[in-house]
Structures are given as structure tokens and as C-alpha cells.
Design goal:
Layout (H helix, E strand, L loop, with lengths): L7 H15 L4 E7 L1 H4 L8 E7 L4 H6 L1 H7 L3 E7 L4 E9 L8 E9 L11 E5 L3 H6 L11 H21 L2 H23 L10 H4 L1 H7 L8 H23 L7 H21 L1
Parallel strand pairs: 2-5
Antiparallel strand pairs: 1-2, 1-6, 3-4, 4-5
Length: 275
Amino acid sequence: MQNTRIPDAHASFLGRALPTLQADRRIVGVGAAGSFSNGSMDEFSDLDLIIALEPDSTAAMMAERRRIAAELGPLVAAFAGEHVGEPRLLICLYAGQDGHVPLHVDLKFVSLADVAARVDDPMVLWERNGRLSQALKIGQARYPMPDLAWIEDRFWVWVHYAALKIGRGELFEAVDFLAFLRAQVLGPLALMEAGAQPNGVRRLEIAAPARAAQLQETVAAYDATSCMRCLYAAVELYRSLRSSVSAGQPAVNEAAESVAMAYLAGIAARQAHSR
């Protein structure tokens, strides 16, 4: 491991975990992805480990994931990653050890035959006979980019939905929906514009500070006026980002935008009249 920026808690965990994983002959290699491999790791980072498996042992190893995870340290909780679309992932929390803080570790168990399909390039920490490195030479890492047409097809329906929630007084729904727009649309587009990995709003303050300042205007209080103001801010930010990143594609759905914004204006007028 040549990463001098790795925090003590992460290094301590790896120092205990790697020999345990090496002892299992069904494991071909271990890589570290995410902030470890791109050099941005700090004390608050997760540890994202790719555990490459012999193809004929993959099913058995998947059934034993929690036992294997428990051998790596003081495991206090673990669950599979179906909610993020990755059932091969085991999301783990380890208690602090040797004076270190608790550690979030993602263990992704992957057949060696499948490691070429990846969203980033892990740093190989250990491998048998160079096999993990060889497998990673096949194909290239491809992080999924936002589908601009998919977003445009939905955005104005979402604006209408948020407006009717505000109109009905379902403010928890409205506040949550604004967070949804940040994570699914505004954050990814702002990160894409900045040339960063478009993963929700992750590290947005660092990668796109000017857009992050604008995004603050979409964070609503539990108040109808605040929700309305933040929804308008979300619309304006989307329009700006759409213009910046789309280069004219896809076509703007002007009819949907007009209908949604007219409805939003009606709700806003009703609010103003009731005050």
C-alpha cells in the first residue's frame, strides 16, 4: 500500500483484515476503491473493498459473507446493499479498536470474471499471481452519467407533484421531495458540470462550491412559504444546469414546463392570498 494519506483507523483495519482474507484460498485478490484509490481519503471516509473471488466459489462465498466480515474485526452491524442496487455489497460497521473510531467498511464480493465491469479503478492491495491486476486490464471503468433526456422527461412532473404537496399542506413530503431533487437531479448535474463523479450530492461543496451555494437555496424549512421559495430555486438551478451541460440535447419539454410552472404559480398565489 503506497497511499500515505490513509488514516490510522483505516490502516489498522487493513493490517488485521488483509492477512485473514489472504488465508482463504477462494479469494483471488483485494482492491480498495472510492476515496482510497483516488487519493481523497480522510478520517471521515468509508473503506470500500473489492474482494475478488474464484468464479466457482462465488455462490458459497456470498452465503458466508457475514461470517467472513466478522473475522475481520469487531463487527457490530452488517446488511446487504440491495437498496443501492448492489446485492453483492455487504455494508459493515466495525467498533473502534486500539483507540480508533468506529469504521464504516463496504465489502463487495465479486467473481474474478466480473471485476472488469466497474465504475472506478480500485487500487490492488493484495492478489494471487497478479490475477486481479490482469482482470482489471479488461475494459475500462465507467461511472454512469446522468441521462439528461430521462431527467427532462420527469422533472416537470416532479415539480407539479411537489407543488401539489405544498398546496395540500403535506410539508414533510415537500421537504423530502426537494431533497430527492437535489440527490437525483441537481447534485449530479452540478458535479457533472464540474467534471466530478456525479454521485448524488457527495463532496459537492468541494467539487462545485459555487453551485453548492446555489443549492443551499433549495433546502427548505418546515414551512409552506419556505418550501415554495425553495422549489422555485430548484427550478431556476435546474434550468441553469440544463443549459450548461446539455449543449441543446435533449429537447426541452416546453409544454410540460409551462403547465407545471403555471400550476406552481397558482399555488404560490393562493398562499400569498391566505397570508
